Amino acid sequence: MKSVPREVTLASLKRPVVVHQLSMKRQKMTRLPSKAEIASCKLAAARRIPELLELMASKPTNATRFLFYGYITLHWSCFHGHRPGVYANLTDQEVIEGRHQGHLIHIKNHKTAGSFGEAQLYLEAGEFSWMERWLEGEGPCKNLGAYLGMAWRDAGMEGPICYTAIRTALSDYAKKTQDAASRKKVTDFMCHDTSTGKEEQSRAKHLVRR
User: Fold this and answer.
1) Domain count, the chain
2) What domain of life does the UniProt record list for this protein's source (predicted)?
3) Which listed residue, of 10, 21, 38, 207, carries a Cα 20 to 30 Å from 48's Cα?
4) Structural domain contains residue 177
5) Domain-embedded: residue 194
């Protein structure tokens, strides 16, 4: 059997591989939340969070509390783009300290603390008041991914969602609209190492729109 020169084989394979990679990247990006969806979620969260806090005060149920957790972390994610571990590890003491720091909350314990230091949540006065009322409640904040999905659907969105998809979308929008210096500020605030972006986009690709 006549052998095929190695360089010919590689040349014949290179183009299909590149085309496939570009196709997969395009498909992954089209499955991410759109700017319109993120904007709609911000509006829905601003409306629903105060309503849920009232319900938690008057008729507390686990379902209401879980939906509140979903909305508050959806709200934070659409503005800040942090990993869910930042929200899960947020302590009461860190919220209390934020009262004296211009509503800026510093979260010490999170995945990339060694590279980026404390994660930050900068809240407006009204948003911080939600946090203060949250401290009056009870119950741990677990299974955030499921609660995020509850809020996503309650806001009228379709298909699956996860924190990585929102985070990847914000990073991609920053890449497309900001210069290099501004983009670095955005990704640093998100505690996002752009060298690991491909890994996160790979996880986000499983969010197939239905």
Assistant:
1) 1
2) Eukaryota
3) 207
4) no
5) no
